[in-house]
Amino acid sequence: MLKRKLRMGMIGGGPGSFIGNIHRIAARLDGEIELVCGAFSSDPKRSSETGQELYLSHDRVYGTYKEMLEKEAAVDENTRMDLVSIVTPNHLHFEPAKLAFEKGFHVVLDKPMTFDLAQAAALKKLVTSSGKQLCITYTYTGYPMVKEARQQVLSKKFGKIRKVLVEYPQGWLSDLIEAGGQKQASWRTDPNQSGQAGTIGDIGVHAFNLAEYISGLEVTELCAEVNTVVEKRKLDDDSGILLRFDNGATGILIASQVATGEENNIRIRVYGEKGGLEWQQADSNSLIIKWADKPVEIWRAGSPYLSDAAKQNTRTPPGHPEGWIEAFANHYRNFAKFIRSGQKNIDINSDFPDVEQGYRGMLFIEKAILGGRSEEKWIRL
Amino acid sequence: MLKRKLRMGMIGGGPGSFIGNIHRIAARLDGEIELVCGAFSSDPKRSSETGQELYLSHDRVYGTYKEMLEKEAAVDENTRMDLVSIVTPNHLHFEPAKLAFEKGFHVVLDKPMTFDLAQAAALKKLVTSSGKQLCITYTYTGYPMVKEARQQVLSKKFGKIRKVLVEYPQGWLSDLIEAGGQKQASWRTDPNQSGQAGTIGDIGVHAFNLAEYISGLEVTELCAEVNTVVEKRKLDDDSGILLRFDNGATGILIASQVATGEENNIRIRVYGEKGGLEWQQADSNSLIIKWADKPVEIWRAGSPYLSDAAKQNTRTPPGHPEGWIEAFANHYRNFAKFIRSGQKNIDINSDFPDVEQGYRGMLFIEKAILGGRSEEKWIRL
Amino acid sequence: MLKRKLRMGMIGGGPGSFIGNIHRIAARLDGEIELVCGAFSSDPKRSSETGQELYLSHDRVYGTYKEMLEKEAAVDENTRMDLVSIVTPNHLHFEPAKLAFEKGFHVVLDKPMTFDLAQAAALKKLVTSSGKQLCITYTYTGYPMVKEARQQVLSKKFGKIRKVLVEYPQGWLSDLIEAGGQKQASWRTDPNQSGQAGTIGDIGVHAFNLAEYISGLEVTELCAEVNTVVEKRKLDDDSGILLRFDNGATGILIASQVATGEENNIRIRVYGEKGGLEWQQADSNSLIIKWADKPVEIWRAGSPYLSDAAKQNTRTPPGHPEGWIEAFANHYRNFAKFIRSGQKNIDINSDFPDVEQGYRGMLFIEKAILGGRSEEKWIRL
Amino acid sequence: MLKRKLRMGMIGGGPGSFIGNIHRIAARLDGEIELVCGAFSSDPKRSSETGQELYLSHDRVYGTYKEMLEKEAAVDENTRMDLVSIVTPNHLHFEPAKLAFEKGFHVVLDKPMTFDLAQAAALKKLVTSSGKQLCITYTYTGYPMVKEARQQVLSKKFGKIRKVLVEYPQGWLSDLIEAGGQKQASWRTDPNQSGQAGTIGDIGVHAFNLAEYISGLEVTELCAEVNTVVEKRKLDDDSGILLRFDNGATGILIASQVATGEENNIRIRVYGEKGGLEWQQADSNSLIIKWADKPVEIWRAGSPYLSDAAKQNTRTPPGHPEGWIEAFANHYRNFAKFIRSGQKNIDINSDFPDVEQGYRGMLFIEKAILGGRSEEKWIRL
Known about the structure:
4 copies of one chain form a homotetramer. Chain A is 35% helix and 22% strand. By secondary structure, chain A is an alpha/beta fold. In chain A, the strands form 2 sheets. Chain A has a 9-stranded mixed β-sheet with strand order 13-12-11-10-6-9-8-7-14. A 5-stranded parallel β-sheet of chain A has the order 2-1-3-4-5, sandwiched between helices. In chain A, a hairpin with a 4-residue loop joins strand 12 and strand 13. In chain A, helix 6 (144-154) packs across helix 9 (199-215). Chain A starts with 5 loop residues before the first strand and ends with a strand.
């Protein structure tokens, strides 16, 4: 085991980036990873500006990701970075990730994994052959009570799962704010940067991943309505999707960015024969368990009665809330632990979303968009 | 205006009935209506038993609804009932209602309005020609904060409505309890008593009515998955339905009776261009208003700042909760006020669900069941 | 057992009265009691006006309570009222109640029981000697989940009770609204009508009663700060009181009517050695149970797993909320059942607040006001 | 301005420490501070063990705080630490802090500031004369919505403040767990390590600080009941305290560690003439604003409409919850910003608790314990 912090580089996350800073906080939080280098912007001046704000050594701040990956691969192993975090828009995921694997680095990649499904398939092969590992930051499965939910479903305490309701309502795209150049909105609604999907790729994919993660099931078919509500918008901003799972269960997935006034309350409910569960980000430290004939239960993060999977992803005692940043940090911490361990298999109690989850997300995007355009009712995944 | 209580008869609501008692409480609560007679069961002995429990005069308790309607029509006008409340299973709605109108009585009818759509069309005609009025007890639109929600949408403060999410999850049919003879389950899952729909007709129709009532819109198309989850059940017990409205808005309706552990938390969210609202029965005295750029607001029943429609359907000051029974009672109170007034038009501040709403509910049931069986994606209403 | 509705008269509750109408609804709701007569106002014209609105027979509407009690005592027993409900301001509780008992009627009396402690002691004697019964409408102990809370504490599942936190914050007296003649405020802040206490007598006494009812303990000492916050107000409008109970437990009681923006969220928390409970009116159909080492539990009104005491005071299935009016109605229903039964002892599953609880409330008022004025820290009850 | 991370040392926080790790995460989170050295335990072996886990250079891990402060003061200024974080039990606060100031370091100190009031007075003098700054980690005032609450009160939108209700209920000391050697319980209930107060010093002081911070008022008098509920415990574990503030407002402070089943839900309500506010850790990203005659408002962390004080202490958009660790980190980030700036005055939008707040906390502890033992009702602060 390495007796030092892992060394990380970052691609993207320059001035004006929102998610870049969150990744940096998440990576830094547990003291297992230190940021040592970066290509924060394709504009070298802006890249340098961010490097200075982060107190990085001038000679480890690069103008392009290629330069960074090549130079870092060449430096001595006592200095060289171990992993790279890629936080660029979707169209700039695949090429840097590909090169990183070729140069022998582990990769953290923001969701959705790639620009399109073909790239996803290619990346899946690449990861397998590289001997390195990929972590996709589907943030919400980093929450301890989401991990607890998965454990409880897998334990079969609810019996066979019958119904999954998952939703991610946001309201921030209720107006055509991309017209005014709002940075977050601009690339997400641009087919050249985001891919064929807008809302489906931005948050629908989170809902899809959460549903499959907690239920332990796979979606096999979907029936989708995918809308562009705001005039002149170039991609979808709203959807309602009926789901069918591989065990015969059904589900409903709602993802909208024109649900005016909504923040980020991703929420899931799963019902089995004997009981059900509910989790939502607005009350992220609680897991609600419901029974046919017993009182409702509230399982609380940090409690001694939780599964190891929940316990090992918590830092505070019950009632001292952890949040979204800590969920993010769990992925980084678990990924670091995995890299340190040198193991091949991901520990169930310290898991993180892997390339397979990344690929399935891309598959969902492809099929949801297809379904939204189709007169056919059901589309197979 | 009549200077006395209105006199009501009841058809159904005998021993073992649940909803009959609720109707009686609701009718009685505001002191505007008194129960004077009833045909509580098709078994005269059981009808009589209920009559005694209700301290009714022995000679006003009947063995059949026909007997009651005929005899009551014949008694003198200082004694004769003014309206009849029909609380039987669905297959026993149309005939008694028809006869009641023919005999000159106003009618309160539990939902869904009839056994099938043809009966609904017939009843619609009948009401129009009778000069009497029909009240369908879609309970949830009796809540003051549901009326407030409707007023706020109609005021256009949210701009054009874009999205309606409505759900009614229950868990009490997670097992095949009809097999054990549970009375409420038995008739609701029996095609001969309930009609072609189970859950869709029992609670889906509530969700549908709530959505149209608050949004002020009409559903024009739907895409439905309708499931029978519990083996050996004869009717549907679960569904997910995509909706399209006449102004171009879309929606999602979820109705399930196998959402194990859920009680009766019917809930609706409506989003417009500028803001949105949320109401749920579990917090029935609050209406949540959300804005793009202002704090969330909680409007509270009983408050002085509410619309007249909300205020006139409340009895208590803010913080003294009213509930489901009072919502029910509002329909009775408003119906009584309407009858007393002798007016033709329903006052917007004292409204109740009429035959048109009853008919649309039946139309929804017909099309949802059709859609559930169809390979076609969209079904027109 | 009487095979007819009980007949009730009312003293007070004329034009402008708020609580009178609530009492009437509560008495009427379950169909066990009918209002047959009333002396609704000391102004015969106004009394008559209310009588007409209630569709009462003209000859049973009286100009004074004396007239009513005397005449009703004289009518034949097939017509005569059985009980009287007194809903006047505090200074008009004792005399009518006294006369009612002397004339052989059962009495429902709003809280606080009397104008002062001496009257309370006298009334206590009177009830005992009369052979009739008194019901004090401390509303909140009528809630099913409050009854459940009491049962759970009495079952000793929490071990010895150590701490009781009870609060009743209101904001409606934040301004000197009595100066503008607001009726509800005027008499409550007038020492000649309300007695020596304002807030303490109006809502503090509810909190006190709730604490003793659920905990099964008696307060033995208190240390009080009692304030008059709004200038020119004649009675207290705010307080904080430390409590000591007869088993060594301690508590804190907060009652304020200048907690601006608060509605009526009376709330109690009780902690024992092994766990604790929480109930509040804002979520009146839930009882929260907390444990040292297990998930939180939410026990829900209407559920099959509840105690008989809770079940027998509920009309609806879980998730169809009952509220404040139904809690009120439970007192009336249970009182009616008691009267019908002819029993001496109150059934634990159909209980109602009796004269002893009324007396202890008056004792609390006396001592809290004394404590508020005293430099002594602890005052014995 | 320093163009590098600030260098921090830590005293305490060795094996088994809970709060030490939280301080390290908080210091590390924003990338402004790096931990460079530590004296983590008075046992050099255990200190070294923690140093290794933190990947610290062996020669910067010390066996005693004295050794650390002396040696660090002597190293060159390109290496030397800038500030020291002291996370030991209360009896080991004063001496290390004193020496740190004497050696020219800034100090972060966990609450309560010192072992007794005399030490607090001495430390206050020392800070003033040292030219260095002290940050006391009263965690809860680090929350953005607590800062928002303070700004709103100071803006006078609620008018004069009349009532402050603050509570901190915990249940983890419901049993005599110190008897079993539980580390956190052992020192907190030991008069030799904790000082004269148990619960009052551990969490009462948080509640006190929160009340003074948000209200902008100072407590002038208190009336206290302070209990030791669990037999054989050496210090207090429960309390109820009446408060009087310098503007005439009153308040109630509840702090208990035997409220079985409670976690860490510190909560405050403040009422003024025109409205009130409510904040609680269980919903830390919301601030509830209540008005006499308008809908309740929920102000949400991360929203554009908030004050600068709130905005500058948030990292995520609304709905992505931040929590207790981020509140902690805000103190570190703001303290780092202050140190970098070289200013004398604390910026209102980047504030942190200073020595004066630390001193007032100690004054509260002294007087609350005195009051708890006194027969006198009111004790002046």
